[in-house]
Amino acid sequence: MPAASNETFYVDKVDKAKVEKGPGGKKVWVFHTLWKGYPNSAASWVQERDFNGSYALDIFWKRSDVGDRDPKNLTKFTIGEVVQLREEREKRGSSRSY
To answer: Origin, by domain of life (predicted)?
Structure first.
């Protein structure tokens, strides 16, 4: 995220999600977030709880490649697993990374 301040930052796009180990060893999602008005180099990983509203995340999950798995059921995902937008994965010609 751009430098911390009292400013409000707006999400341009979420292009990846990654499973990390959260408090107590519980799996949590973090999202690779691009910010409106900032270059891609300012993108950052943001925890789900830090999103104000879920519109950007709803769009991401509708366009992501999770196969037949439900992203709300983290038992189906491994720590370190990265989920990409279908179009990003197709551009790179790669599959899910684990």
So the answer is: Eukaryota
